[in-house]
Amino acid sequence: MSRTRAAAWSAVAAGIATMLAAAVTACAQQPASPTGTPPTAASPAGPAPEVSATPAAAVPPTGLNIDRLKLDVKVDPVGVDDTTGDFAVPPSVDVVGWYKWGPALNATTGSIVIAGHVDSAEQGAGAFFHLRDLGPGDPITVTGADGSTRRFTVTAREVYPKAKIPLERYFARDGTVRLTLITCGGPFDASTRHYRDNVVITAQPAA
């Protein structure tokens, strides 16, 4: 279904605040307090027109490795669900999703966004169950579809109520290139089956 740029951005803004919280159970702990230096704000940017997944020269991320968490996980390209307007996080909690309408692994500007489930009532702990444990200085390695690797270093961990997460910052296509990892966190509301917060990790390319 076609949509205008403004309408598509509105869908993402609504979706990222809800999709990551769907069908989950409470975490063992609440996220740690925010720490590190948050990324510089950049101009808002919505999804690209739905004509192709990525430019020909773009390198999609296919793997994510975080030594601190003993995590080595597959990354699938995802977009926005046409039916719900939600960020289409992979249904398996063992797989995370790269936002294919944004910057790819070889980008020189903007936010490379990867999101995943914290857990699921049916599947248990997700790939990002311990994402809240990351802090400044922790290394992250992302592998691309062409076999290349790109290393990042965590610079900030932030926790936002879902309604207040600054999506224009984390989904921007301009500004210094960075890696953004997103999952759910905070208290779990059993009545709505949603977590209250989003946990956001920002990492810069390693020197």
From TrEMBL:
Position of the signal peptide: 1-28
Region Disordered: list its residue ranges. 30-59
Any idea which UniProt keywords this protein has?
A: Hydrolase, Signal
Which Pfam family, an example, fits this chain?
A: Sortase
PROSITE patterns in the record: PROKAR_LIPOPROTEIN
Task: Say yes or no: keyword Cytoplasm present.
Answer: no
> Which InterPro entries would you find in this protein's record?
Sortase, Sortase_dom-sf, Sortase_F
User: This chain belongs to which protein, by name?
Assistant: Sortase
Tell me the organism: Dactylosporangium roseum
The record lists the lineage as: Bacteria, Bacillati, Actinomycetota, Actinomycetes, Micromonosporales
